[in-house]
Amino acid sequence: MITAEDLAASPNPLARHYRRFRVEERVLLTGHSHQAWPDVAAEGQLAALEDAAALVDDKWDRALAVADEVRAGFRRLLADPGAEIALGASTHELVVRLLSALDLGGTRPRLVSTDGEFHSLRRQLARLAEGGVEVVLVPAEPAGTLATVLAANPAEPHVFYAANNRGLFRSPDAGRSWERIALEWPDDPLQYRPAALEVVEV
After folding, report:
1. How many CB atoms lie under 10 A from the CB of residue 162?
2. Which residues form the domain of 112?
3. How many helices and strands in the chain, by DSSP H and E?
4. Which is nearest to 176 in space by CA: 151, 202, 158, 149?
5. 150 SS3 class
6. Which residues 6+ apart lie within 8 Å of 42 measured at CB?
């Protein structure tokens, strides 16, 4: 059984199931429909096509049965036979589920995103801003102003490191402020896009 401690290890024990998305080579910071899919998703997509072609309008009983199998798989992974597992049907629903886990009315009523997000998130953030939640939209352009990879060191609580094609940066206060780390960087940075970042104690 994979534990939470296992998931914090490097390499991540689940990475071998995501080889098509090369998660062992890069950190994907996408939290919507562009997130990494497991390799087995290819089989699932093909099976869904075959079921739809064979059953047409009668495919829903089969789809619901497969959904139950997916929930059962997550229960085994969590070692919780009675777990209530809800499957999201859309990006919008995924965003709502994520937001429901945040204390938006408490000590951190702030959400940080970019102005280049998909419509589902953009609209949801606009409604939250109307309701009083502080929404900070970081410009997605020009290229190079957004971090492409993030990393942290457990020995440095609240300290984060970020890299993009402009250089390497460090935040001493959990992302509230950033300082550039003096480090040689390529002369033509726009040709480079960091795909991985790891903090190593020396």
Report:
1. 20
2. 90-140
3. 5, 6
4. 158
5. strand
6. 20
Rounded CA gap, 109 and 127, in Å?
A: 14
Does residue 109 or residue 46 have the better pLDDT?
Answer: 46
d(CA 104, CA 98): 11
Q: Is residue 62 part of a domain?
A: yes
Tell me the sheet residues that pair with 187: none
Give the model's pLDDT for residue 118. 75
CA separation for the pair 61, 68 (Å, rounded) = 11
Q: What would the two tokens of residue 8 be?
A: 């914090």
pLDDT for the residue numbered 192: 58
Please indicate, yes or no, whether residues 136 and 153 belong to a single structural domain of this protein.
no
Phi, psi of 180 (to 5 degrees): -75, 140
Number of domains forming the structure of the chain: 3
Taking the alpha carbons at both ends of the chain, their separation in whole angstroms is 32
Alpha-carbon span 43 to 120, nearest angstrom: 28
Q: What whole-number distance in Å separates Cα of residue 95 and Cα of residue 179?
A: 30
Please give the average per-residue pLDDT across 97-102, as a whole number. 82
pLDDT at 39 over 80: yes
pTM for this entry: 0.43
